[in-house]
Amino acid sequence: MTPIALARAAEMAAMFMIGDGVAGLVQPRRHVALWQDRALGAERTVRPFVGRPARRRAYALVQIAAGLLLASRLHAGQGTTVVNR
What we know:
Radius of gyration: 16 Å
Largest sheet: none
Shape: elongated
Distance between the termini: 27 Å
Low-confidence stretches: none
Number of helices: 4
Strand content: under 5%
Structural class: mainly alpha
Mean pLDDT: 89
Oligomer: single chain
């Protein structure tokens, strides 16, 4: 994988973590229900959160923090060109 592709993949992962975390924080029951049945394997991942919105919210905070940390560690120059510095 090229450096630019790796940086883009990391950026996409960070954005997914942040977005999924926000959805789980704001609407934990709805978000878990969406993934609890026939979700191509995600059922096992959400099982610990079924009926436990506080647990899902706590995990959401961890997701958001991890996504922000990952995004903050990506620097211009990791295969990217920054315009208008």
